[in-house]
Design brief:
The protein is of the alpha/beta class. The chain contains 5 helices and 8 strands; from the N terminus they run H-E-H-E-E-H-E-H-E-E-E-H-E. Strands 1, 2, 3, 4, 5, 6, 7 and 8 form an 8-stranded mixed β-sheet that branches. The protein is globular and about 40 Å long.
Amino acid sequence: MTTNGSENPQNPSPSSSASPRFAEAIRELGLGELLSSIRRFPDATRTAAEAAAAIGCELSEICKSLIFAADGVPVLVLMDGASRVDVERVREELGVEKVTRAKADVVRETTGYAIGGVPPFGHRTKTRVLADRSLLAHDVVWAAAGNPHAVFPMEPKELVAYAGATLVDVREQTP
């Protein structure tokens, strides 16, 4: 990790910035040092654009954690903040009949977190994870730390590994 959020004056107590579930999950993964790099913001950063503005980074440096239903089974897709997920590409990648955006209650049941604060790992249940290759274009990406007010930085390859993600190309292509 190359960024330390404890330098942020809005973040006097980094360990209290992450949700308790996420803080416990990262300790279990042996990533306790990650707690010191979490940044907390007074205003929610529920969207990638809000997070990028608060952090002062490019929109594409945000890692969105999006839950979809693939033939009714939850799947997590990690996507850069400047891009949209092509559900048809996800469907093809998974070899399923139908992919739709999961409803808020399914997101919370699956991950243990509310939409806007879903981190890329540390979820309540084991879920299949796809990560779009676009994340690898950056040295560091920022992801939610379990609530809509907190984010953390991580090297994309490390993030993909801890999420147990399969690298894929599921980004919507612009004509």
